């Protein structure tokens, strides 16, 4: 190692990245070359982590929000000794099947060292914010001996321009999350060129206005970065280190230029960079002393790890068991019984005024049982009612489990992803279904990562009434069902709601959208069964009675009752009609063909949902009947709207008769 | 009228709102009661408008971004004499069929006086921003004599918390749109209660950081409001008037309280307010003098209107014709010929390296022909290439037709809606399809309002290759197709692209999503026809040749070529196979049954699209074959991904054979 060992360590990042990008023939060099010194300072002097045990230690979290600079992260994971990131994998950057993918991808439990999948800008910093919320909450619950870590995020200009990033700045400043530290790659270049093309405001000032601690510094000066990190860790406010950098630093042809962002790199560039920076080692070769220095840095936390293990061991028995339970994501004993009791009791209790209040009641029941559950809501506390018994999580009260997000759905969703990725909490968000689109980019990331976030929605259709079409979802059920790995549940009554909640809580491998009506959901299930009928996604609620089944009526949510009424009308005229309730298509699609066939029947089918038909054809067939919406809604009382749009039992009966030619 | 005629005029808004809300038994009183003085000052002293001719005059634009306070707008439209808003309609607030809907809804060409539909927060101010962009551009093109107006927006806390609002603040400050004026209802209350629950930052400072002119004042002091409006109109920066108000002012039981936002109002509240404020008139009764004062205010612009008409008449003939053409939204002569020539020429030209560059070429050709077209892009100029020949619209150059939006997709979409609602420009946005979700709430509003925005997307599938699943849309085609009133086009080659562009430009009643591949789109159409085959949404590209049609292969975009190859393989073994290209489902669904049947055929059908199956069942049937994606993508070269996910001609052939049992 030469006279500047730290600089050599940074160059190791730089040249691993250059060599990998040259070999891959595409990739983004701007971030890894511009942030090499920042990352080196962070990882070698400040970060608490343990490459051998990425999933469980009270490690600091690091998020690469500017995910296109993925080689920065892969280089760091390789150099610090994360097992998945071998030199061979680095050489396979962007090759199909490599862990060194175009953008960083979280593996289950982040065992590969990647905390969250990033790429769509703004998501990563909002995830980091969610991690910091989870940390503060767990720290308050279990104490600083066992939960006490920082969350760092590398971030570029794009993340800070995105609305979700701006929402995060405002809310994190409000919540004063002192252990959240952003490392801004202030290189004054975006894909289009100079940031002057699209932004004039002083970004550092924007953070200060929001209550952040801001330090402006030279991002290539490791001492300055290190000092700023020390200051950030001491300051009670969230910190933003505005690091002036040169994009693609080291590539003379591109550095500081627009092309530095992602223009192709060639062998000649690599060679020129070696000469410019005095790096005398061949492609992918890290000299032993530099390698050793990085390895040592990676092991720096070993003592902290042991001390932490001792602290966990020293917790009072019950607290330790609880801590380990929530960190493992296990549900407590008896949780199912509470839901079973509710389901039983619901048969005796008249339904409340609103479907969403059923979810609220269940949520209330779980409060004493699931202290790890955090509820976030975007300024709709009263109409969604998922706060009872909870205090607000805020700068004064870190034990509060309810996050008032303000009118900021997007960061709410991304925050929940960060909480779920962090672990130790169950993240649940609540808003109106019409506003699901505002958080949809976050929901997509939850689905892509397989994070067990519970997205609760109310006001699910024209049934909301007079607030009109802007607030009436018609296409949103279909758009959520289109998303791979997203369970979409629309329970018909309190019994199904309890069943869906059970399934949603038990589901650990992906997100769930739980969709509830604003209007009342009278019971459609009148007999208690300990079996969870919703678990197969769809089931026969009523078989044909007056004779063999001639028609199958399929419905979800508030329309199941209409299907039941249609069945009565059909049966009254001698048509054998079954009603199938379909609270979760994704679960139904996973059943075997025989079960699906037994539910759907082999005769005429008519579906009903106060939404567009898209997706229903898979159950109804091209010639099947459907009662629903073909356009946007209108402003008027719910019952009048159902009539106006002809979403009625009579319409179902007419469709059935048309198909049966009677 | 008493000693304070202006105050009486404000109370007229207040009591029309109270009476309507009491009668409707629900509604939001916070905004109309809190902003009555602000609105009165604006309308009676500053606003340039003409109730009798809402659609065409160079009027100032007013947006109610806090759309839940719709009674404010209805009261104003009634009092100033907009014909649709009779007292009878006010009495029918929130009744089905009334123009006084729960949230304000724009009618075609805003002839009802409502510039844009609002409700989902943040959209309205971003629309207003788009209107101000359109105004600045048209002002530069046609001169201040004929285009010179302000855009005002009423706005609440929620709009300013939303990410789209924050993006707007940053970008409007950057662009220095001096004729944009926000009137902030700073009542310190949101639905959840005090704004302290969710925000700490100084909102006024946040605007100042972004380069806005900010004035803080008492929103119930009409003189102060009026003075601030004068100052705002003189200042070259966009202005934000931070108006401290009391929510629900006048309802003693609720004013300044959380309940003031939208708690039920009763007759007793109305009576108490009358006593408190000295309003001695019965429900829905506006005394003649107050009515007359409002009417006079509404006619205040009559002279301006006449002067403006004279200015338009005085324009040089060609300029006047051009001005009237773009304001009517008419396309110029010969525009179709340019596309026809391109379509013809495309047969002779080898395809370029990227599908999106086809759209770029067409866009280039239209530049001299359509000076009214503005292109907005979210920091992807190089990979989407829709800027050639255009200069940037910025604070220095108002004739620039390309808006560098930065990494802010959401405000880009909402801005485009505002431009389209304003008229005189054709608004086109460009980003990657994977980021459509970021602007989806804006797209929904475009569809709801029927605004002719052109949303162009590139990088439409796993075909983008190694950037990986975050950047690979699989569900987004389906989610866009789920949206009512949204045309979704995915052309297969340059010929279809020209046809789709023609259809998109001619479409005036709603938005279009035009979706292009990153990878090359080799020709699938090899013979020129002057007929626009895409106009029917789907058509038979190749009929079965070796015998009667046994199988119909359906495809869109880049997969049409794969279907053509599958057809060759099937025909080679004696299976009569037709290929149907389906560039636009919405247009196909609008064809008559006979045409649809002739295209789809009556035999076996197999579809192919590098996306999820949802929606395809409507054409394929439950038992039809489909080749596509069932989950998210992966990081690797495009050709390897197509093989990995088995999206190949061979997979289509296998499906066809399975169904034909051969």
Could you describe the 3D structure shown?
2 copies of one chain form a homodimer. Chain A has 662 residues and is an alpha/beta fold. Helices cover 42% and strands 12% of the residues of chain A. In chain A, helix 1 crosses helix 12, helix 6 runs parallel beside helix 8 (163-175) and helix 22 packs across helix 27 (649-660). The radius of gyration of chain A is 28 Å and the shape is elongated. The N and C termini of chain A lie far apart (89 Å). Chains A and B meet through helix 7, helix 8, helix 9, helix 17 and helix 18 of A and helix 7, helix 8, helix 9, helix 17 and helix 18 of B.
Q: Report how far the terminal alpha carbons of chain A are from each other.
A: 89 Å
Mean pLDDT of chain A: 96
Q: From the helix content, strand content and strand pairing of chain A, which structural class follows?
A: alpha/beta
- Report strand order across the widest sheet of chain A: 9-8-10-11-13-12
Please give the number of β-strands of chain A.
18
Percent of residues of chain A in beta strands?
5-15%
Q: Low-confidence runs of chain A (pLDDT<50, min 5 residues)?
A: none
In DSSP terms (H or I, runs of 4 or more residues), the helix count of chain A works out at 27
Oligomer: homodimer
Of all protein chain pairs, which has the greatest interface, and how many residues does each chain bring to it? Answer: A-B, 111 and 111 residues
The main sheet of chain A comes to: 6 strands, parallel
Helix proportion of chain A? 40-55%
Rg of chain A, please?
A: 28 Å
Overall, the morphology of chain A is elongated
């Amino acid at each position: 190692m030469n006279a500047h060992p730290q600089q050599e360590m940074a160059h190791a990042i730089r040249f691993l990245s250059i060599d990998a990008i040259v070999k891959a023939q595409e990739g983004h060099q701007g971030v890894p070359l511009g942030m090499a010194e920042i990352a080196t300072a962070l990882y070698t002097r400040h970060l608490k982590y343990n490459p051998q045990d990425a999933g469980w230690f009270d490690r600091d979290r690091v998020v690469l929000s500017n995910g296109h600079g993925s080689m920065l992260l892969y280089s760091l994971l390789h150099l610090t000794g994360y097992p998945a990131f071998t030199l061979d994998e680095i050489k396979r950057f962007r090759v199909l099947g490599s862990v060194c993918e175009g953008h960083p991808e979280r593996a289950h439990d982040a065992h590969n060292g990647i905390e969250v999948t990033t790429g769509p800008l703004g998501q990563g910093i909002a995830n980091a914010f969610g991690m910091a919320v989870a940390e503060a909450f767990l720290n308050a619950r279990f104490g600083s001996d066992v939960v006490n870590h920082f969350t760092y995020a590398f971030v570029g200009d794009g993340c800070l321009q995105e609305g979700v990033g701006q929402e995060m700045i405002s809310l994190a400043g409000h919540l004063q999350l002192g252990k959240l530290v952003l490392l801004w790659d202030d290189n004054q270049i975006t894909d289009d060129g100079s940031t002057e093309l699209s932004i004039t405001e002083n970004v550092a000032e924007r953070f200060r206005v929001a209550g952040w601690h801001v330090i402006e510094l030279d991002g290539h000066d490791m001492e300055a970065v290190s000092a700023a990190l020390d200051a950030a860790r001491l300051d009670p406010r969230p910190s933003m280190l505005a690091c002036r950098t040169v994009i693609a630093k080291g590539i003379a042809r591109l550095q500081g230029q627009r092309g530095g962002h992602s223009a192709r790199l060639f062998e000649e560039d690599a060679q020129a960079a070696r000469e410019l920076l005095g790096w005398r080692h061949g492609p992918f070769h890290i000299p032993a002393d530099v390698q050793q220095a990085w390895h040592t840095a990676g092991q720096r936390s070993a003592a902290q790890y042991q001390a932490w293990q001792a602290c966990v061991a020293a917790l009072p028995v019950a607290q330790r068991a609880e801590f380990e339970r929530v960190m493992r994501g296990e549900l407590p004993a008896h949780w199912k019984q509470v839901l079973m009791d509710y389901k039983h009791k619901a048969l005796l209790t008249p339904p409340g005024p609103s479907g969403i209040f059923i979810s609220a009641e269940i949520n209330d029941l779980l409060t004493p049982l699931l202290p790890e559950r955090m509820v976030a809501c975007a300024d709709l506390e009263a109409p969604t009612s998922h706060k009872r018994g909870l205090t607000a999580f805020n700068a004064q009260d870190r034990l509060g489990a309810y996050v008032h997000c303000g009118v900021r759905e997007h960061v709410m969703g991304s925050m929940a992803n960060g909480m779920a990725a962090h672990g130790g909490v169950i993240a649940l968000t609540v808003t109106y279904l019409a506003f699901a689109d505002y958080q949809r980019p976050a929901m997509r990331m939850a689905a892509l990562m397989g994070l067990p976030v519970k997205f609760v929605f109310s006001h699910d259709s024209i049934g909301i009434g007079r607030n009109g079409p802007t607030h009436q979802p018609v296409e949103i059920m279909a758009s959520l069902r289109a998303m791979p790995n997203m369970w979409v549940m629309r329970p018909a009554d309190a019994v199904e709601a309890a069943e869906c909640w059970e399934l949603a809580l038990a589901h650990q491998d992906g997100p769930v959208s739980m969709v509830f009506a604003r209007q009342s959901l009278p019971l459609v299930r009148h007999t208690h069964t300990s079996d969870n009928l919703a678990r197969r996604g769809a089931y026969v609620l009523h078989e044909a009675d007056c004779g063999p089944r001639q028609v199958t009526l399929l419905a979800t949510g508030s329309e199941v009752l209409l299907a039941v009424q249609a069945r009565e009308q059909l049966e009254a005229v001698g048509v054998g009609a079954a009603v199938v309730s379909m609270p979760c298509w994704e679960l139904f699609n996973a059943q075997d063909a025989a079960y699906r066939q037994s539910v759907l029947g082999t005769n005429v089918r008519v579906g009903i949902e106060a939404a567009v038909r898209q997706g229903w054809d898979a159950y109804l067939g091209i010639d099947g009947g459907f009662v629903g919406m073909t356009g946007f809604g209108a402003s008027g009382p719910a019952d009048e709207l159902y009539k106006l749009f002809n979403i009625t039992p009579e319409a179902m009966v007419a469709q059935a008769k048309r198909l049966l030619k009677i």
